[in-house]
Design goal:
350 residues; alpha+beta; 5-stranded mixed beta sheet; two-stranded antiparallel ribbon; elongated
């Protein structure tokens, strides 16, 4: 039943600004249809009040008509107005007809949740203000007539019915709020990941690597040394020139995955730019980092990556007191430059 009632509109996917309005419209019309049907029966069977039964029956027909039209057209704006006007008009008609007695004024508290959510802050404020102004006039009229109030069974039903409606509505609002926050959290995570990740290789990008280094440097000491290696793919330009940049991208993607597999769990791999990669070796002295770099160089030289035999040149540097991010990476770059001048496919410490 609920699956049928809550129709999914292709033009309003879950990330659309009007998605939750379509859900509220369906939810609100489900509540109003159920309420009007129940109230019609109660007013006929329990109170023999055919005038109120006619009012509730009219609301039932309006609710069914609006939901049928909405399901056929998917027009959120017009349906939002129709639902709000219907709810407001029928509630005010009931309040005025009953002269505000039997706790009928309590029904007016249902207008703001509909008006604000469906029509927005400005229109919601106007409709709610008008509704409560009418209620104030009704109360003023009660003061003028000095008519005694009786708290009968109808009063109890009004309080119960409106309270249940509030619980149902705000339960829906909480679901909408929670879902919106969850979606926002997911999107923020995705945005943060995009901001930190190299699009081609999926590794950390240059900015993320620099920020990570800045965070690491204050905690570096003799007990927990820090080293970096700067890797460059030898003669990579030949691959791009001979096979095209698309093939070159495939090689870089495969190499990035290979580097991650070869690193220790605590090491951080980032793409520095082009065919250059940086590895942040935490808790690694220069000697340890050199051994790791040699193993990486030898392993890559033995592999065929995307049909290509590759070699890498590596410059390695260890953090020393007084180093900045720039000076540490500059020394690794000096080592890489020397490795290139020494015939490539080599590792040099600087």
């Amino acid at each position: 039943m609920l699956t049928f009632w809550f129709k999914e509109f292709p033009q309003y996917p879950c990330d659309h600004t009007d998605y939750w309005r379509t859900r509220l419209i369906s939810y609100a019309l489900l509540v109003t249809t159920s309420y009007f049907l129940i109230l019609t029966i109660i007013n006929i069977v329990t109170f023999s009040d055919f005038s109120l039964a006619l009012l509730d029956g009219t609301g039932l027909l309006f609710s069914l008509g609006i939901i049928a039209w909405f399901r056929a057209t998917g027009n959120v704006k017009v349906t939002s107005w129709a639902v709000t006007i219907m709810v407001t008009a029928l509630i005010l008609l009931f309040v005025v007809t009953s002269q505000g007695y039997s706790h009928s004024l309590y029904w007016a508290t249902l207008v703001p949740p509909f008006a604000f959510f469906l029509l927005g802050r400005t229109t919601g404020t106007a409709i709610s203000t008008f509704t409560f102004f009418i209620c104030a006039l009704v109360v003023y009229e009660q003061m003028e007539t000095q008519r005694p109030a009786f708290f009968a069974f109808g009063s109890l039903l009004n309080v119960i019915e409106v309270s249940i409606a509030h619980i149902l509505l705000f339960r829906f609002y909480e679901q909408a709020r929670s879902s919106a926050y969850d979606t926002l959290a997911i999107r923020n995570t995705e945005i943060l990941q995009l901001a930190e990740t190299d699009k081609l290789t999926g590794l950390y990008n240059r900015e993320k690597l620099e920020n990570t280094l800045i965070a690491f440097l204050p905690g570096v000491d003799e007990q927990y040394p820090l080293s970096v290696m700067l890797l460059d793919v030898d003669y990579f330009k030949k691959i791009n020139d001979q096979y095209g940049h698309f093939e070159g991208d495939k090689v870089l993607q495969a190499l990035a995955k290979k580097l991650k597999d070869l690193m220790r769990e605590q090491d951080i791999v980032a793409r520095w730019g082009g065919e250059e990669f940086v590895v942040l070796c935490t808790n690694a002295s220069l000697e340890t980092a050199m051994q790791l770099a040699q193993r990486i160089r030898e392993d890559i030289a033995k592999q065929v990556i995307c049909g290509h035999g590759l070699t890498v040149s590596v410059g390695v540097a260890q953090y020393v007191p007084g180093d900045s991010v720039e000076s540490l990476l500059d020394r690794a770059d000096v080592g890489l430059y020397q490795a290139k001048n020494n015939g490539r496919n080599s590792v040099i410490a600087a």
